[in-house]
Amino acid sequence: MRIAVEIVLLIAGFFLMIKGADVFVGASVDIAKRLRIPTVIIGLTIVALGTSAPEAVVSVTAAIGGSSELAIGNVVGSNIFNLLFIVGFCALLRPVYVNLKEITKDFWVSFGAAALLLVMMLIFTSAIPRLGGLILFACFLVYMTVLVRKALSSRTENKAAEENIKENTTPQRSLTKTIILTILGIGLIISGGQATVWGAVNIAARFGVTERVIGLTILALGTSLPEFVTTIVACRKGESEIAIGNIIGSNIFNILFVLGLSGMILPLAVDRSLIFDMAVLTVGSLAFLLFALSGKRVVRFEGFSMVSMYAAYMLMLFV
């Protein structure tokens, strides 16, 4: 009977997080439109933050509860899923165009964040100390500062584009309703995250599955559903900039913000097997860059290759 309750809580937690992220993203984008922030910046910041909120809540909750392996596994698994499966799946539906001029620097920030985490894992063999979490979080603040300056610069340098953005992105909601929805979205995400972690930890203990595997699979797929839905919708509408910006931005947020914040709360225990998972993330990142450079887009065959890489990785986790 108790296992049924744990499964129901896990599923209910995912639902609350996904619905909360949807509400939060919609309200946050309205706020961004009022500030006349360019589309690609919205994808890299507001949308990425909103879709990464489930990972943040799950990882922070896990860290507070002493399940730091679950926190790292969730982030690494989510980033692998985002990059290989979501981008690959989108490319299977239709070619995903990549604006290299806009996302190259952000891609290297994402790659650098993963490399920094890998170096920390190699140096701190048992647990990444709070100082490591502080370094990650400081890098996040620097990155956000650069993005905000970029957004402000783009508004002042191109008045014509600003007027176009203003004309075509007028929010439909009142400011009061937008603020209420933002708070409601955050509340749903937090409640869902707590239920999800409780259910996942208890299910893992019941079946003898390691926190690393639970984090890399069930939690990673569940918390990445907002990225999946947001990216698929953006791709179908031809908004490749938002789609790719969302994925890259989410991966940056997951490592620098989520693990940075979690690591400052409690040292992050390092499962040595996670080094292999970080290697998969590195190879996946380079594969995406190679495909993007080959024709400034990811086509169906390349998308199939990325999805196949993810399927092979999932198979290896359970063999």
Which range best describes the helical content: under 10%, 10-25%, 25-40%, 40-55%, 55-70% or over 70%?
over 70%
Distance between the termini: 29 Å
Rounded Rg: 19 Å
What's the rounded overall pLDDT mean? 79
Structure description:
The chain has 319 residues and is an all-alpha fold. It has helices at 2-34, 39-64, 68-93, 100-123, 130-157, 159-168, 175-207, 211-223, 225-236, 240-265, 274-295, 300-318; strands spanning 96-97, 127-128, 268-269, 297-298. The longest helix is centred in the N-terminal third of the chain and has 33 residues, at 2-34. It is globular and about 50 Å long. The model has no long low-confidence stretch (mean pLDDT 79).
List the helices and strands and how they pair.
Layout: H1 2-34, H2 39-64, H3 68-93, E1 96-97, H4 100-123, E2 127-128, H5 130-157, H6 159-168, H7 175-207, H8 211-223, H9 225-236, H10 240-265, E3 268-269, H11 274-295, E4 297-298, H12 300-318
Antiparallel strand pairs: 1-4, 2-3
